[in-house]
Amino acid sequence: MKTQSTAIGLLLNWRLHLIVIVVSALSELIGIQSIPVANAKLLFLPLFYAFILCLFVNPNITKFSGKIINKKNASIAAPIIVIGILPFIAKFGTLIGPALPKIAESGSAMVLQELGNLGTMLIAMPIAVLVFKMGREAIGATYSIAREPNIALVSDRYGLKSHEGIGVMGVYVMGTMFGTIYFAMLAGFLATTGWFDPRALAMACGVGSGSMTAACSGTLATAFPSMKNEILAFAGASNLLTNATGLYVAIFIALPFSEWFYKKLSGEKKATSAMTKGAN
Fold first, then answer.
1. Burial class (CB in 10 A: 0-12, 13-18, 19+), 212
2. Which of 33, 160, 209, 216 could be bridged to 205 by S-S, CB 3.0 to 4.6 A?
3. Residue 38 has what pLDDT?
4. Do 138 and 170 contact (CB within 8 A), yes or no?
5. Which residue ranges make up each domain of the chain?
6. Where are the transmembrane segments (predicted)?
């Protein structure tokens, strides 16, 4: 009972809510800005400014912010994010139904988009192993987007204190801190290039993370206001499908493939064989 009362007290802390209101107001006042990059534009949405401003009032990052809000009160902000995203996720659900015929027309693209996660591994794994000389941490870091189900899988298979566990937790922390803003900026940039169909970009937004999907699809909806409902529907359907099938793809395809790919890149198997022969 005492713990519950403490949690409620932290949740109702007026300083925390005042900071959120002030930061949100300032971010909206700045509005959408853009920087030309070649033939495209890098879009900066209010979400980006809110992220930067909140860094300055985070007691874990800046010392002076401790006078405004302490670490204990700031820690309650993380679970509130989930609550804040729920209405947006609910909106996804209301848009998916009317858009089912268009989603069905996308055919195999919607189903096969889940395999796109393997494509990122083909790029990230060689860089991790050959450029940054990472060990087996590269397996945990590159086999998935490193959200909660992926952490659970690595924990069960290797343990979180293993090299693979360190890798997946490292990406999880970085994704939590910078993933949302990265997805928003990348979506904004790609939207202005004209390289991809907006619906394809919307499907790419559904990575299995509610906050990242919301940031990515929200940016696309801003860039293509006439296709707003269609973009949100495709992103929501893709995210739902990723949540439903992503763990199975990770278990049976992504993780085994990352093990094999790592051994090929690092020569781990050859090194082990050489050591065995030397011992004999």
1. buried
2. 216
3. 52
4. no
5. 1-75, 84-268
6. 12-36, 42-61, 73-90, 110-132, 166-189, 201-224, 231-255
CA distances 144 to 47, 93, 125, 206, Å, are 25, 25, 11, 13
- Predicted TM-score of the model (pTM): 0.59
Spatial separation of the C-alpha atoms in residues 229 and 91, rounded to whole Å = 10
CA distance 112 to 227: 23
Q: What's the pLDDT score for residue 94?
A: 65
Q: Give the pLDDT of residue 41.
A: 60
Measure the CA dihedral 267/139/207/185, to 10°.
-80
DSSP calls for 67-107:
GTS-HHHHHTHHHHHHHHHHHHHHHHHHHHTTTHHHHHHTT
Distance CA 49, CA 57 (A): 13
- In degrees, rounded to 5, the angle at the alpha carbon of residue 160 between the alpha carbons of residues 268 and 148 is 110
What is the rounded CA–CA span in Å between residue 127 and residue 130? 5
User: Could you tell me the pLDDT band of residue 271, with boundaries at 50, 70 and 90?
Assistant: very low
Q: What is the pLDDT of residues 89-114, one digit of tens each?
A: 666 566 556 656 665 665 666 666 66
Residue at token pair 């559904």: 206
Give the type of residue at 136.
Answer: R
* CA–CA separation, 161 and 136 (whole Å): 12
> DSSP states of 207-275 as a string?
SS-HHHHHHHHHHHHHH-GGGHHHHHHHHHHHHHHHHHHHHHHIIIIIHHHHHHHHHHHHTHHHHHHHH
User: What's residue 244's pLDDT?
Assistant: 66
Q: Could you give the 3-state DSSP secondary structure of residue 36?
A: strand
- Asked whether 215 and 85 are in contact (CB, 8 A), the reply is no
Amino acid at 42: L
d(CA 20, CA 12): 13
